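Sanity check

After download, print the first record. It should look like this:
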Amino acid sequence: MMKWHFLSLACLFVFTAQAQNNKGITVSGSIQSDILIPQDDEKIGTEKTSDDVQTNTYAEVNLMSEHVDAGVRFEYLEHPMPGFEKDFKGWGVPHFFVKGKLDNAELTVGHFYDQFGSGFIFRTYEERSIGVDNALLGGHLVYKPFKGVQLKALTGKQRRYWKYNDSWISGGDVELNLDQWFRRMAESETYLTLGFSFVNKHERADNDEIFVDAHRKLNLPENVNAWDVRANFSKGGFSLLAEYAQKSQDPSFDNNYIYRKGYVAMLSASYSKKGLSALLQAKRSDNMSFRSRRKVDFTASAINHLPAFTYEHTYTLAAQYPYATNPGGEWAYQAELGYTFKRNTLLGGKYGTSVKLNYSYVHGIEKTPKSTKVGEDEWISERGSDGYSSAFWKWGGQTYYQDMNIQIDKRFSKDFKINLMYMNQLYNKTIVEGEGGLIHADIFVADAKYRINKKMTLRGEAQYLSTKDDDGDSVFGLLELSVLPHFMFTISDEWNCGGTKIHYYMGSVTYNVGSHRLQVGYGRTSDGYNCSGGVCRYVPASKGLSISYNYNF
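Expected C-alpha cells:
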C-alpha cells in the first residue's frame, strides 16, 4: 500500500512537470497544511497525546485540456488535529479522477462530487473544516442532448474516511430550462427550470443482522429508492423554488430500524432590488436520513443533504450554540428582510445605512407512535414497525431552535465603519447534543473598522453573551491590524465570566505573498460544534502553537 502511494505521487509530479511544458494544458492545484504543537492544560481539559505534532495536510493537482481533465489529491492525517482522531487517522491518495469532454457530454471515471436539486436525495461534497468527504468512486455522465435539457447519470461506492461502504449508489437527474425553448420568456427575463431526480441505494441485507429481540431478526430491504421533483421560477428580482422528495422504507441506526417512508418538502421565495432584499422559507422533513450504510453515523455516510433554514453566524459568541438539521424530522422557517437607507437622508446619513432582520424557528413534528402485534399479548413498538404516523399540517413537537437577530451596518466616514448586531436565541441542547436543557441567550456584537492610512487598517470586535443557563455569561474581544500588502496581526480573548471563569486567549501573525499564506498562532481554543450548511462536528478544546500554510497555483 505504501509503495502504491509513493508511486502515485511520483507519477503525479512527473505528469505535472510534463504538462506545464505542453501547450493547451492548464495546471492548477493547492497545498493546505494545518499544524498544531499541543500542550497540556488542566483548566480546559486537554490531555497529553502520543503525537508531539498534529497535522491535517492536503495536496492536490488538477490538469485541464480541451478534451480531457484529470486530478489527484494526497492527504496526510497520520497524526490528525483534535477532533479528527479515530477514523480520520491515515494517509494516502483517496481522491483521483479522469474526465473526458465532448461538445455535449462529459464522462468522469474515478471520484466525483455532485448534487441533485437542493440535495434532498443526493449530494456529495468536501468540507474539510467539519471532516466531510463523501465522494463517490465510480462513473458520472453529464449529457446535454438538446438546448435546455441536461441529463445526469451516476453510479459508485461512497467514501467513508479511508474505506468505502459496500453499497452501490446509482441515480439520474433531468433538468429542463424552459426559458431556452421560448424566446419570449428570455426576452422578458422570465426563467423556469423543472427538475426530476431518482437515486437507488443497493445494500446487501446479509451485511447486517438486526434483531427485534433474541428470536426475531428484521427483514432488511436491499434496495432503497428516493425521488425528487422541483420547480424554480424567477422574473426580475423575484424567485420562487418549490421542491418535494420522498424515500422508500429504509430502516437504519438513525430511525431505530423502523419501516416508515421518508419525506421532505420545501418552499422558498426571495425578492431583491437595489437597497431591498427579502427572503421567506419553510421546510418540513420527516425521517429523511439517507445513508450508504445503515449501521453507521449519519454524517460520515450521508447520501443526501438537508439544508438548515437558520442564519449561519460568523461571530464567535453568536455561533457558540449552532443548530444543524435534525434528519428525524422538523419544521423549519426563516424570514429575512434587508434594507439600505439612502445617502443624505435622516436615517441614511452621508454614506447610507444598511439594516438586516432575520428570524429562524425550528420545531419538531407531531408524531403518533405505532406498534405492531406479533402475538396474543406481545407487541413491537418502534423497531420493526412503521414507527409512527405524522399529520403534515398538525403543529407538534418541542422547540429545537429559535434565532431573532438584527444587524446594522453604518459608515461614518471614508475611514470608519461599524457593524452592530443583537441576537435573541433559544437552543435546545438536549435535542441537539443529548443533554443540557433549553438555553436562552441574548448576544450583543460591535464590530468596528478604521483605516489608519493607505496601508494600515485596524478592526476590533466586542461581544457579550448573556444567559442564566449552561455555563453562564461570556465576553469576547478581538483586535486585528492589517498592514498592506503582507501582514495581519490578531489578538483575541474569550472569557467565560459565568461558571468556568476560563480565558481562551489567542494571538496570531499572518503573512501573505502572491499565492502563499502563512499563519502562526498560539493560545487556547474552546470545545464546541463546528458547523457548515447544517452539518456539525464536535471539536474538543486545544492549546498550543498552531501553524497554517496555504498555497494555490
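If your output differs, re-run the checksum step. Summary of this record's structure: Residues 2-20 form the longest helix (19 residues).
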